[in-house]
Amino acid sequence: MSDSVATCDVEVFYDGECPLCKREIGMLRRLDRRGRIRFTDITAATFDAAAIGKSFDELMARIQGRLPDGTWIEGVEVFRRLYGAVGFGPLVTLSRLPLVRQLLDVSYTLFAKNRLRFTGRCAAGSCQIPPAEPRDQVRA
Fold first, then answer.
1. What φ, ψ does residue 92 adopt, rounded to 5°?
2. So what's the architecture of 3-118 in CATH?
3. What pTM was estimated for this model as a whole?
4. Distance between alpha carbon 51 and the CA centroid of its chain, in Å?
5. Whole-number Cα distances in Å, 122 to 32, 43, 125, 133
6. Domain range list for the chain
């Protein structure tokens, strides 16, 4: 793991082509005054999914995060870590309550499955994740 990952609380792997994702990541960047989050755009030309042991499809299916010790997290837990890193600890605590946790997990799962449709990114009636081949290797 690189030193920059080890010096942050969490690294988030996000879809930089998703309008909602970009908005939330932009807000988190502004709130992350102490540099506790490492932001990695999985749609960047220089990103190589294979270098981190994941496929582009895995990263597109659900938001992924990595902790300084190398542990992978996904889904709502990534958001808990991100919001905790920028000082929203009480909100994170509430999100862990049993019924709230279940509601958030179900809601995020539904969102993740329909994210391309919700963000107007379906092409020709298809909401499939773009092919992984070009993105699993570093693009020139």
1. -65, -45
2. 3-Layer(aba) Sandwich (3.40)
3. 0.82
4. 17
5. 32, 16, 6, 19
6. 3-118
